[in-house]
Amino acid sequence: MNIPLMDLVAQYRSLQTEIDSAVREVIEKGSFVLGPTVTALEHEVAAYLGTSHAVGLASGTDALVLTMRAMDIGPGDEVIVPVYTFYATAEAVAMVGATPVFVDVQPDTYCIDPIQVAGRINKHTKAIIPVHLYGHPADMDPIIQLAHAKGIKVIEDNAQSFGSAYNDTKTGSLADAGCISFFPSKNLGGFGDGGMVVTNDPELDDRIRMLRSHGWKKKYCPEVIGYNSRLDALQAAILRAKLPHIDQWNDARRELAQRYNQSLLELGIVVPHEAPYGRHVYHLFMIQTPHRDHLATSLKDQGVASAVYYPQPLHLMKPFASHGHKSGKFPVAEKASGNLLAIPMFPEMSHDQLDYVVASLKQAIVSAPGANS
Ligand SMILES: *Cc1c(COP(=O)(O)O)cnc(C)c1O
What's the whole-model pTM score? Predict the structure, then answer.
């Protein structure tokens, strides 16, 4: 059996009629960038997440950049980010000219540690960007309390957790702004790049709308230096066809995760943690093992895909070398970078496929050098 890490075509197959006709309609109308289809998606995503506003953009990275620009965050400012996340979270901070300030993550959820956030706030701190990593929400209440007591903004990086919830509130709608990515592999993915910001702040919405179209409200009358960062109508049409199914797909991921958990715990593998406040939507299913490289090779030999996310925490990446952080500074992130492995997880995965992954892992563990853990 060959099992991919994820299947980006399965959802097209299951919704082919709707998606084909939605795409054809956009092409026949001839309105390709922004326009009524994008506006409709903005309303639908805002309604789904429970915010008053949503702005469609070209990517999740741009969602972070334009949000910070709209908040007037720039040179001289500091923004607190988890040291263990996809590079774009911190890259976006640097792109607006501000300085990302790294904080270690929690050992169970791999999300930013609120207690350590408190220690990094100073008079330059303008925002905190908690990342809901791998489908699990960051612990938001203490972060929001801390930030708002000091007049600091909170921007949720919700790229990996569309449909997740913190207590009973959808991630992305908890703070000042929520940034979404529609990159094809995300839980709600288009057939290309795309992104969105959701917020309850009408002024922020207004400023991001201006920034996404060259910094103008009235055509050819720019007010600031902006961007060309607009969601296109083809992506919006595809996403509109997919959105009504997101809960069902996330539920399928949760059901598969439960099946994984039962079998993998018996094998002594550390499976993803779900905090009491969280609804995990398993964007990725990460296992923790000291024998990662051996397991990955053995899985590959048995036809099972796996992948390392993220091989390096941000403080050890070249673009942030000037911060002068050494290895050992953020132990939880460094351990996660060394030990975590993503195994196949997608809503359409069958129980047979999942059981084959488990059997392959078992085989891999038995053959691990000097391993019986
Ligand atoms: C994917 C991702 C982004 C960036 O989204 P793009 O649409 O690829 O630009 C930002 N943050 C996190 C955590 C992501 O996973």
Answer: 0.97
